[in-house]
């Protein structure tokens, strides 16, 4: 099968609405199964980066994320994807994803964003933090020279979406903030051709780049990894405060927002932390922002910790519901009742989920079919 045949393989496509039980391609780091029809790149890109300034006396300062890396000639910033060449800053990963798949939108997870649809999901190498629990560390902590990269343009993305009836592009797996220019231009091009874009991020981005990016996107999912600065310092190698500020900025901008908290045994799993998280969300974002608690599996630098017990996740669920959050979900617990969406007005189930099988059962025009209560989100 050549590249055009791959794009035209509509028989492999998936339904855009309704029950989703499709044979989704597996997510494989490096994207070999799914991107094989695209050309493997034999060199990195050299596209001028945005949001940087030249320093007096030489060097540049990157303004994409709060690290504000100061980079001398022929050096790179923390994320490893941006390089100073003669005091011009370049992104090395433009059009060069290393992972490329079609996933259920629920896998991101988005539960209130066109449920039951799919997303063309892509990532480049690199990240601006270094979470000890990262499930995609093989690409997030790699330099782009260490991954197999594919030449995949915005035009390719739009053609793939059209050929496979996929309505959305998702920038995901690693950290899209570090491939900001690629994401921005693809999202803008997608919008011109009727394709939506969503960002799955840690939210560690500066205010101005985010301000410019939001109009190109349709939804954002933020991993709020904990509600404690010391956790961000010791486990994430990042900062909490800028993430909280950006969450407020996203909410004020009106873009659809969902939050995920990965619950790691002994590190961020106390009643006090769940309560603080719930109260912060309630106070600064609102009770109708979905919060997903996700189950940790031992990996990367935290192989000595156990899987998160189901009871711990259920405790998080109960605390957040008691604090008034209306849409609390438990992830990586297939067929658990807390995977489904219930109307806060009458308690009726409006969207049923079992793993990645999704059925809209009581929702019409963004309202509960039983009591007409508004269900927030973006629905067909
Ligand atoms: S995007 Fe990369 S180079 Fe820029 S400040 Fe963040 S980590 Fe540093």
Question: What does this protein look like?
Answer:
The structure is a single chain. The chain has 380 residues and is α/β, with parallel strands linked by helices. The chain contains ten helices and 19 strands. It has helices at residues 3-7, 32-35, 137-140, 154-163, 180-192, 207-213, 229-236, 241-253, 271-284, 310-322, and strands at residues 47-48, 52-54, 60-62, 70-71, 82-85, 88-91, 99-104, 118-123, 168-171, 196-201, 219-223, 256-263, 291-295, 328-331, 341-342, 349-354, 357-360, 363-364, 367-368. The strands form five sheets. Strands 7-8-9-10-11-12-13-14 form an eight-stranded mixed sheet. A three-stranded antiparallel sheet has the order 1-6-5, with no helix packed on it. A three-stranded antiparallel sheet has the order 2-3-4, with no helix packed on it. Strand 13, helix 10 (310-322) and strand 14 (328-331) form a beta-alpha-beta unit. Helix 4 crosses helix 5 and helix 9 packs across helix 10. The longest helix has 14 residues, at 271-284. It starts with a helix and ends in a 12-residue tail after the last strand. The model is unreliable at 1-36 (pLDDT under 50). The site of iron/sulfur cluster has 12 residues, from loops.
């Amino acid at each position: 099968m050549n590249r055009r045949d791959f794009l035209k393989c509509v028989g492999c496509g998936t339904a855009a609405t309704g029950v989703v039980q499709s044979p989704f391609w597996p997510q494989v780091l490096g994207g070999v199964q799914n991107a094989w029809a695209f050309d493997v790149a034999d060199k990195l890109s050299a596209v001028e980066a945005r949001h940087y300034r030249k320093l007096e006396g030489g060097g540049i300062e990157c303004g994409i994320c709060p690290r504000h890396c100061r980079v001398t000639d022929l050096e790179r910033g923390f994320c490893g994807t941006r390089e100073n060449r003669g005091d011009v800053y370049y992104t090395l990963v433009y059009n060069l994803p290393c992972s490329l798949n079609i996933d259920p939108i629920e896998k991101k997870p988005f539960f209130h964003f066109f449920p039951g649809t799919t997303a063309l999901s892509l990532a480049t190498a690199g990240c601006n933090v270094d979470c000890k629990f990262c499930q995609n560390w093989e690409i997030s902590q790699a330099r782009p020279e260490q991954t197999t990269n594919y030449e995949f343009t915005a035009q390719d993305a739009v053609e793939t979406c059209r050929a496979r009836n996929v309505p959305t592009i998702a920038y995901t797996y690693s950290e899209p903030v570090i491939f900001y220019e690629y994401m921005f231009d693809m999202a803008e091009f997608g919008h011109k051709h009727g394709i939506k874009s969503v960002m799955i991020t840690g939210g560690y981005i500066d205010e101005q780049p985010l301000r410019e990016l939001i109009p190109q996107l349709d939804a954002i999912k933020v991993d709020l990894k904990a509600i404690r600065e010391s956790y961000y310092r010791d486990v994430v190698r990042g900062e909490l405060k800028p993430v909280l500020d950006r969450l407020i900025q996203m909410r004020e901008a009106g873009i659809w927002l969902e939050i995920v908290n990965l619950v790691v045994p002994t590190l961020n799993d106390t009643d006090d932390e769940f309560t603080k998280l719930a109260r912060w969300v309630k106070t600064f974002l609102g009770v109708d922002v979905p919060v997903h608690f996700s189950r940790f599996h031992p990996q990367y630098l935290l192989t000595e910790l156990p899987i998160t017990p189901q009871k711990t996740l259920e405790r998080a669920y109960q605390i957040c519901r008691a604090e008034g959050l209306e849409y609390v979900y438990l992830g990586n617990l297939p067929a658990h009742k807390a995977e489904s969406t219930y109307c806060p007005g009458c308690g009726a189930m409006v969207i049923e989920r079992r793993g990645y099988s999704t059925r809209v059962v009581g929702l019409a025009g963004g309202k509960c079919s039983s009591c007409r209560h508004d269900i927030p989100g973006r629905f067909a």
